[in-house]
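Customer ticket, subject: "Can you confirm the structure for ABC transporter substrate-binding protein?"

Message body: Hello, I'm evaluating your service for our small team and ran a test protein. I'd like someone to confirm that this is what the system normally returns, since I don't have a reference to compare against.
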Amino acid sequence: MSHVLPIEPHPAKCAHSPVLQEASVSPDLSRRDFLRYSGATGAAAFIAATLSACSGGPASTGSVGAGSNKDLITAVIGYGNDQSWDPTQTASAFAMAGITHVYEGLLDTDPITREPYPALATALPSDLNATSWKFTLREGAKWHDGQPVTADDVVFTYQRVLDPEANVLVGNFFRSWLQEVKKVDDRTVELVFKFAFPDAAPRLTIAKIMPKHVFGQPGAWDAAKGGKAVGSGPYKLTAHNPKSNTTFEAFDGYNGPRPAAAKKMNWLSIVDASARVAKISGASAEAQIADNIPYANVDQLKQQGLTVEGGAGMNHLFLMFNTGAKPFDDVRVRQALHYAIDKKKLIDVALKGHGTASSSFLNEGHPDHKRAAVVYDYDPDKAKALLKEAGVANLTVNLMSVNVSWLVDCLPTIAASWEAIGVKTTLEPQDTAALFAKMDQFQDYQVVAAASNPNQFGMDADLIMRYNYVSGGLWMKYSHFEGSKEAKALFAQMDQATKEPDKAKKTELLHKYLDLIAEQAVVYPVVHTELMTAWDPKKLTGVRAQPYPGINLLQTKRV
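Agent reply: Thanks for trying us out. I re-ran your input and got the following:
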C-alpha cells in the first residue's frame, strides 16, 4: 500500500519537526531523562511548548480579507492536508472531507444521518437482500474535465478496490462480500455479491468513482496521492498547497442531487490549536468555520457569538502494542497498562468532560454496543498483580504518539498512571507521517497512542472492525498480531458474522468477537471522545456538526 496513514484518521501534520528536541533541554539533562515522567504539569507544558510551533502553513496562504467576501467560505481544518488524496487509499481527515465534495459514489450518505441516497446512480436498490444490484448512471453526469461519466469508469474503480494485488485500504470494506462489478451497457452496471449483504448500500459511498481516462494512465495513482483530483462532484479542486491550504470552486457542469451552495471554498490546514482558534475569533476573524475545537476554548467562542456544537461517536484515543516485542507479547502486560490508566482523571482534566471511558471497542452510543466481557476500569492494584503474574518488573515504556492536540493533552495522565504502578514512562509525540513512516519501515517500537475514527467510512460494526482488524491490514502488520492463533480465530469469527443473514445471530457473533478483541487489547480504545465544530451563524447557514473529523459544506451557504 502506498501509502495510507490510518490515523485520526491522520489528522496532525506539521511543517516543523514536532519531535521533542534535545536542544530544548538543559545540557545537564538527557532527552530521555527529561521526559522521564516526574509530574504532569511539567511534561504537559513541555509538550505544549514544543507543539506550539506547529501550524498548517505560512500566513501568506491564508484568507486575508475573506471575511467580507460572500462568494467564499474560509474553513480551518485541524488536520494536515499533505497526506494521500487517493480516494481508494486515504484515511486522512482533511483529504476524506475534501474528497466528499469533489467525488461521488454510486450512492452517497448524508454526513449526519448516514442514510444513503442516489448520487451517480439514479435510484437506491429495490431489494436489499438480493445477491446482485443493478444501477443506472445519472444522465449527463460529467467529470470536471468535461468528459462524460460512463459504466467503464465504475468498473475501473471497483477493479482497483477489489484487486488483491493493489490491496487498497477501502478494499477491506468490500472484498469479503462483493464478487465483481460488471458493465451492462454504457450507463448501467451490475454489482454481483458473494452472498446477500443488506448493509452494502451505505458502503457504496466509500468507493468514490474515478475517471478511467485520467487515473488509468501510468503514474496516475501517485498523482492522485499527491493531490490530483478529477471528480464528478459539486466542487472541483482548484489548488492544493500541502501543509498550507486547499481551494475549491463550484463545478458548473454538476447536475446531481446536492449542488454546491457556495461559489468558492478555501480550507486552511492549521494543526496548532491556538492558531486555529485565532483564525475564527474576534472581530477580524478570517474564517467562518473551524473543526477540532479544543475543549478549553468552547465557552470562550460561544461568548463571542459563535455556535459550537459537538458530536459523540467512535472518535477515540487508542493504544497499539508491538506484540512482536517482549513483554508486550504477553496479554497480561497489555491488560495491565490499560487497567492502570486513570480514565476519569484523563476525561476530567484533558478532555474537560467530553469523553467516555471505553467499555467495548464500539462507543456506547453505537446501536451494536454491548459492554465487553473484559472492561478496563481503573484498577492499579490489578495492573500490578498482572505484571507480577507475567514476571515483569522494572518495566520502562517509550510511548510514541501522534501530535493531535487533544490527544497530546491526554499523555501526561497516561504517563502518570503508569508511573504510579512502577512503570517508567517516556513520551514521544511526533508528526503523524513521521510516526507511521517508522511503522511502515517496521522499526522497533513498544507502544503507540493515536486517534482514530472509522465513522469517517461508515457506521456499521462490520465496517468499523474491518478498519482495524483484518488479515493483511496495516494495523495488524504494525502490531505484529496477524500471524497469532488468536488473530486467526478472530478473523474467522468476523467472516462468520459477515455472512450471517439473521440480524440477531449476526449481532451475537459480533459481540463474541468484540469480547476477544477486548481481551487481547492489541489495538484498543482507552476513551471515546466528542469532536467540536465552531462557526459564525451570522455568516454561514446550513452547517451541521459531525461526530467524526472534518467538515461537510455541501449544504452550507455564506450569508
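A couple of notes from the result: The chain has two domains: 73-269, 312-531. The two ends are 43 Å apart (CA to CA). Feel free to reply with more questions.
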